[in-house]
Amino acid sequence: IAAVSSQEDKHAVSHYEIVELIKQLQVAPDVNQEAVLEIEWAYLSLLDGYSGGTPKLLENKLAKEPDFFCELIQLIYRSKNDNQKEKKDNSQDKDIATNAWRLLNDWKLVPGIQDDGTFNADFFNRRVQKVEEICTASGHLDIAMSNIGEILIYAPQDPSGLWIHHTVAKALNSRESEAMRSGYSTATYNSRGVHTVDPSGSQERELAERFRKKADEVENATFSRFATTLRELADSYEHEAKRVISRYT
Questions:
Q1: Phi, psi dihedral angles at 17 (to 5 degrees)
Q2: Structural contact between residues 158 and 166, judged by C-beta atoms closer than 8 angstroms
Q3: How does pLDDT run across 9-20, given as a tens digit for each residue?
Q4: pTM recorded for the entire structure
């Protein structure tokens, strides 16, 4: 913690060594958890997964504590209730908002996933409901629901065999969950990342077929609104395939 504000040469200790030290602190049985949370926040830019380290305690806190999630949302996004057109620049506030955005952007732990890997549906529902209450009052409901929708691309399979847990599908299918479905769609599309372009468009057509199949499966499970979102995703991949083909022929 002292090193964060130290005037000494920051290259004296390598990033690799810092990350390895944090990884040891994360699993130490008698360490102060609040201290590790502070350390993860201070060195969040290094815990990007590529270095072999992730902010495990912060992600767990984010998944389990709706107040913390809502606090991050409020740090990043302006409230719909805020009529102030301009906000004074503050470098410290910007740094905090950047960290908050980085944590939310890299977050992959779905609320309700327990330490043993099982999914607690009741916890998930309570978590979403609490976020709705807090963010409705603060004027951040739509953006909060969109962010929750983004994390749901990592939702577990249902015990029945459906590719997504029924509780999560039901939340995404709700009439009031348009923002959540939009976040899910955006995150799904962006999760493809960098890829090699096949001039035949076969990759995009395979994705389109995959999401049409997923849409049929959730519609058969009575989640029609969610199915519509998945079919729109399939259509977007189909259009992309046509653009690829036209570009290379």
A1: -65, -40
A2: yes
A3: 766 678 899 999
A4: 0.89
